[in-house]
Amino acid sequence: MTQLKSLQDRLNQGAYLADSFDLIVVGAGHAGIEAAIAAATLGFKTALFTLHIDALANMPCNPNIGGTAKGQLVREIDALGGVMGKMADRHTIQFRMLNRSKGPAVLSPRAQQDRWKYQADMRKLLENTANLSLIQSEVTDLIWREEEGKKKIEGVVNKLGSLYAARKVILATGTFLRSKVIIGEAIYPSGPDGLSSADQLSQALRDMGLTIKRFKTGTPGRFHSRSLHFEEMTVQPADTEITPFSFDNEEDPDWRPLASVDCYLTYSTPESKRVIQDNIERSPLYSGLVEGVGPRYCPSFEDKVVKFPQRERHHVFLEPCGLDSVEIYASGLSSSMPEDVQRELVKTIPGMENAEFIRFAYAIDYDLLDAREVDLSLEVRAIEGLYAAGQILGSSGYEEAAATGLIAGINACQSLKGEEPIILDRSQAYIGVLIDDLVSKGTEEPYRMMTSRAEYRLLLRQDNADRRLTTIGRQVGLISDARWERFQAKQKRIEDERKRMEETRVKPGPELSAFLEKHNSAPAPNGVSLADLLKRPELNYRALAAVDPGRPRICWPVEAEAGAGFLSPVDCYNVEVEVKYAGYIRMEEERIAHFRKMEKRLIPEDFDYNAIAGLKLEAKQKLTAQRPRSVGQASRISGISPADISVLILALSQQAQAHEPKPPRKDQ
Fold this sequence. Notes:
The chain is of the alpha+beta class and 668 residues long. Helices cover 35% and strands 19% of the residues. Helix 8 runs antiparallel to helix 11. The relative contact order is 0.12.
């Protein structure tokens, strides 16, 4: 029976059909933007709906892109053909490569952004993207029909009651669904930065049978720069050696960040702790006024005081919001305390004693979906053609949002083309880890990507994201011919140089002995290959130039007509990592081979878990609800034990044998 929610029923009742699209994206934050631009670039008629066209690509928290593990996500987005990395490179005002002392597996680029220039430039890009309509209008309902027990999306309804038909819809609503801002006892409907909330769409999702959860996030106050005493703080200078997010800019010797400004570090004090302790009963977090669950890894300042009572001080980073603004962001001071407590608190922090508030800190409650009701393709399992991305899935952060938005956009288009979805697994990308964690395990708090979540992080480095993912971006259609040619040339240069180092031996003699002695390295009386020398921890690629007269010339840019014999500095770094860590990489690849064996053991979509006699009840219920794509994904569902997986594998084997054609009898 067809439901009243269908497009035809609404038209029969006299509703106005304003327009029809191949794909509609709801929400113009970082997730929605990636999804919409990808779809439009792939040639599909796309609409991007936003509550506030002047607030698209907003950065209501710290205006920075990247960071630990998040930088890897941005590089992966760029490798697939997304836009965040390019835009961040244009508006970087301070760059730092995090974790330099910890090795290549966890190196993470981070760039402070000019918030308003980033937004303005992104709007310009959206307005000038072919096939893309940018519409300021609140989406209040979804259009769908149900036939033979299956729901299928047909479009959206805006606040004016107009219908917009679409074959696919992507929800990228951020923190706006039924959102409330909380500052002490003051609670009022609002999205981030005082923007209006979206109060009707949550009910539409409930009407479709989807599970709605509630999370909390928040942001620190902003302060006037003239009121801060930076001389009492520790300077945090920008790096002089800068790595762009976009692999296109990596090839451009003229690329430079927008600016290179200082940030500053100070600390809270025991007096700061006392202010919170004396007013803790006024905290919405502890008085029960906050409904949603907050982030564990980016807690409010009052949460830190309560959960870490032994700590007498906490970091506070002061970072600019833009070159043409006096606003300074105080990272580490997120709070939902009343205004008077916030004012008293900052007076206890060195350099902030006379701080003038421009914006007060606040918490925000919002609705979201249970990501376990979504496939790895990011399509909602119960509604064909409906996808979700960003904070509506339980993630936190601009980078996580953009990553899931890009994948949702790609897969909606794959479906429109009648092709299989792009599923990145945990061994291919941090994006794969992110989506698999959300979909397979779910999350009971805002999910933040960290390097520790990736089992294969030595292979998922920020420097080799193009090698891992650009072929997929090309396959999808988001990588241009020119970029593809540059990518192929770069990979050939790296591979040729790696082979040359393995095959080139340095002969024994006084020159080699003197070189090794100078670098406190063990003698090599019989000679040694360049690759084996590079594997020594005390040596690096640059140092080996002294015993490697035949190495290619390093130039920038690499001369296209030169062919072999030329390398870029980026090529050299890639070669060094691949050679120096070859043994560890080999072990990781062996682990990945076992992992992929489990991932390739696919489970039929209609597999009857209830028919497996040896499977415990909890496992049957969870597997039936989540419908894992593979045995590997099933093993990562919370509550599924190794014993359950063994029983499942046996049942799958028995089913496969039962469907195999039997050989003819010998007497036939």
